[in-house]
Amino acid sequence: IVSMHYLQADVAQAKAIPALVKLLHSAEEHTLLCALGTLALAVGQQNSANQCEVRECGGFAKVVALLSDEHVAASHRLFEAACELIVCLCSGCADNQLELVKANGTGPLLGLIQYEQYVNVQTSAASAIRAVALDNPITQEVIRHQ
User: Fold this and answer.
1) Mean of the per-residue pLDDT values for the chain?
2) Are 18 and 10 in contact (CB under 8 A)?
């Protein structure tokens, strides 16, 4: 459903986004992985209503916390999924790009670009940084200084 806006609208109308954000607060790796992936699909890219709803539900703080969580480091799949969700949340959404910067998420993302154990993590982190910086001089400047 990542490119189907009518299904994404159905997800929002069903109040699924707050429930998925709540799942991000689970300590179980499998639940976290499922929640990250499902939320990315549900939000989609360039869907400002869904992107903003995740921000309003407090989803950014948890995603940023995951990026620097030492327990998550044991699972490169969680890093990849978190980065993919950031791409969906920030693509074309200046408010979310700024929110990620305010939540200090760019530092951990830049650290993941140097995560040599898994190339997929580096690639996912680079995509996330690109989504945060795209067409946004403020976030570009923050990233440049980091």
Assistant:
1) 86
2) no
